[in-house]
């Protein structure tokens, strides 16, 4: 009778083990696992560009922020709050019209407008450096309004090789 009882328990245990399939999580394993989780490293320049946006644009001869620019800077401030060790540089840029001196000064005003907005949103000013390139670093070539509009910007970039401070 004990053998029959042990046999019954063994059969129940065997059936229970067969009924429990491992849960599939949808996660890749093996050689393809790295490809499935690839993407920008959190807190990196690529992460900022891909998930937040790295630049705001200005009207001709202006350094004031539009509501669209403020929305971009709001996202940047939230991203910077998530990565408190990240240091950034805000570079002010201009189109190629105007004198070198005027464009350098305007670029500074543009970079500072972005910096002041981020600081007002809680980003420590000590984490933000600014620079003006004036008209020396265009992102679009051409002498037309489309190119000029792209070159009137402030670009935020992550500074340093280890953005998370690890």
Can you offer a commentary on this structure?
By secondary structure, the protein is of the alpha+beta class. It has one domain: 60s Ribosomal Protein L30, Chain: A, CATH 3.30.1330.60. It is 44% helix and 14% strand. It is built from six helices and four strands; from the N terminus they run αααβαβαβαβ. The chain has a four-stranded mixed beta sheet with strand order 1-4-2-3. β2, α5 (100-120) and β3 (128-134) form a beta-alpha-beta unit. The longest helix is centred in the middle third of the chain and has 21 residues, at 100-120. It starts with a helix and ends in a 7-residue tail after the last strand. 27% of the residues are buried. Residues 19-30 and 162-166 have low confidence and may be disordered.
In short:
The protein has helices at 2-19, 33-36, 45-51, 67-82, 100-120, 145-151, and strands at residues 55-57, 87-93, 128-134, 153-159. The protein has 166 residues and is an alpha+beta fold. The chain has a four-stranded mixed sheet with strand order 1-4-2-3.
């Amino acid at each position: 009778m004990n053998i029959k009882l042990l046999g019954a328990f063994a059969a129940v245990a065997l059936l229970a083990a067969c009924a429990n399939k491992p849960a599939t999580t949808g996660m890749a394993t093996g050689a393809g696992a790295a490809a499935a989780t690839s993407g920008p490293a959190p807190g990196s320049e690529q992460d900022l560009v891909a998930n937040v946006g790295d630049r705001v644009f200005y009207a001709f001869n202006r350094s004031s922020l539009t509501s669209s620019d403020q929305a971009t800077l709001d996202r940047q401030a939230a991203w910077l709050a998530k990565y408190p060790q990240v240091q950034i540089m805000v570079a002010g840029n201009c189109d190629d019209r105007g004198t070198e001196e005027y464009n350098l000064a305007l670029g500074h005003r543009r970079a500072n407008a972005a910096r002041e907005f981020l600081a007002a949103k809680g980003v420590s000013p000590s984490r933000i450096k600014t620079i003006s390139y004036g008209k020396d670093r265009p992102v679009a070539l051409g002498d037309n309004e489309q190119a000029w509009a792209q070159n009137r910007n402030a670009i935020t970039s992550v500074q340093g090789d280890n953005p998370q401070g690890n």
